[in-house]
Amino acid sequence: MATDERWYDDAVFYAVDVEAFADGNGDGVGDFPGLIDRLDHLDALGVDCVWLLPFYPSPNRDNGYDVADYYGVDDRHGTLGDFVAFVRAADRLGIRVLVDLVVNHTSDQHPWFRRAREDPDSPYRDYYVWVDDPPEWPDPDRGPVFPGEEDTVWSYDEAAEAFYYHRFYHFQPDLNVANPDVRAEIRNVMDFWLRLGVDGFRVDAATLMIDNKGGLESTRLDDPHGVIRDLRRFVARRGDDAVLLAEADDEPDRLADYFGDGDECNVLLNFLLDAYLVAALAERRADPLRRVLDLLPAIPEEGQWANFLRNYDELNLGRLPTADREAVFEAFAPDEAMGIYGRGIRRRLAPMLGDRDRIELAYSLLFSLPGAPLLVYGDEIGMGEDLSLPGRDAVRTPMQWADEPNGGFSPADADDLVRPVIAGGGYGYEAVNVADQREDPDSLLRWFGRLIRTRHACPAIGTGACEVLDVDDPAVFAHRIAGDDGAVVAVHNLDDSPTAVSIALDGDPTVAFGRDGASVRPADDATDGSERARAWRFDLDGYGYCWVRPD
Ligand code: NOJ
């Protein structure tokens, strides 16, 4: 792949869980041969970069985020050779590959932890965080990340005769990144995958990784962000234009720190925007979106946001003000079973919004906002969730490829599948699948193809300056992004009633993207020629949207 240091500014990212994507060997579990066979789908869609969720050897008690070996591919997903074949095949199509770097913690089955617990004198003991007596009640900011599933962050280990620290599940002991040997191990891991050709890493739990683990003196980092700077320096040195895309779901006023002076993360997953964008959809008004654009910090020239609506975890509403959070729960998770951890929603976007027009509105808006968009597999066909599955598995059902047994995901017996495929009803594979949508020019999949092509044709969105425009209707969000590559004005109606708004534009606008029926014409109140060139009327259906190039 040619070197292009800022490739991520305009990339469309696509998250793939290998185990749920495509089963190539018929054992019921997705694998790299299956993924290779389906790369044509990503290519046709216009995806620029695939982010692979963990596929490493793992007891798989947290969807692979409990890594037992950083240097391999779990047998269920194929071999390292298959992985290399995948990277090569993706590269041939111009698709970049990011892998998950899960180094806040390991699995308790990782050899480091096994040795650490068995031998207090082992050098691996200090790879983890131990105490003889855990604090009575941990710091409220350092409680379990999965309330209801874990009730402590200190678990006792019989062999070690001590308590170890874990912010996530008890089977995911936290690594002590204050230990320089752990940092050296992390560099080795990165080096390994960079040499196999990856384009960078999605850094799992970056916020917790650099936290003062357990609040102990021994884990306090003098310069927490120095950890990330080291990772970045290493990646830049060894990986050409490889990048760090981080999961940093932190307080708004701390987010900019993860970009550093352009010397930390290249891209941050934009959790804050996600929550407020969903609030705007739920409340059918632009205000939450205006607020979040004010809340988001300015970021360095080299940095970028990865904007998304849903991922494969819960939709986290924890950072929303109470009124917005309640509005989202009421609109999108009316049943208790749809909520999780007291802060989130375990649903996919399509059933949350229900209406095809509203789904288009939501993604059109997402793709028009400053940053680079990210989709999770299945979004492009409007897959649903399976609330009968435990916890976050509800949104991790297998990809629906065709109206064939198991949705074309696997030829295995349905009982042997990694998770059941959604069947029947409005979101089952019979009704929602790639093959049918590929044939149908009006399908959501084909619409996504057009959206992505339009996004690629409007690079100003990735790098330009964004200005929110004043319009008369509170349900309408209008913004203008202007950069070296021209300008884009996008207008979105968050409500289901048709509306019209008037916006002053410098040039004669041409429509770049929009729902049929979206139109722009000189505003009625413009009388003479010079005014006609400035005031433009946008007519929008309910949930209508329109992107124009003003010059
Ligand atoms: C964040 C991942 O997105 C989530 O799925 C996982 O459970 C935690 N990190 C722990 O690794």
Can you put this structure into words, describing what you see?
The protein has 551 residues and is of the alpha/beta class. 28% of the residues lie in helices and 18% in strands. The chain has 18 helices and 22 strands. The protein has an eight-stranded parallel barrel with strand order 1-2-3-7-8-9-10-14, surrounded by four helices. Helix 14 packs parallel to helix 16. The mean pLDDT is 95. The chain binds 1-deoxynojirimycin. 1-deoxynojirimycin (NOJ) binds next to loops.
Structural class: alpha/beta
Helix content: 25-40%
What is the CA-CA span between the terminal residues? 34 Å
Number of discrete helical segments = 18
Ions, cofactors and other bound molecules: 1-deoxynojirimycin
Radius of gyration: 24 Å
Percent strand equals: 15-25%
Uncertain residue segments = none
Q: How many strands appear in the DSSP assignment?
A: 22
The coarse overall form would be globular
Calculate the mean pLDDT score and round it: 95
Sketch the major β-sheet. Answer: 8 strands, parallel, barrel
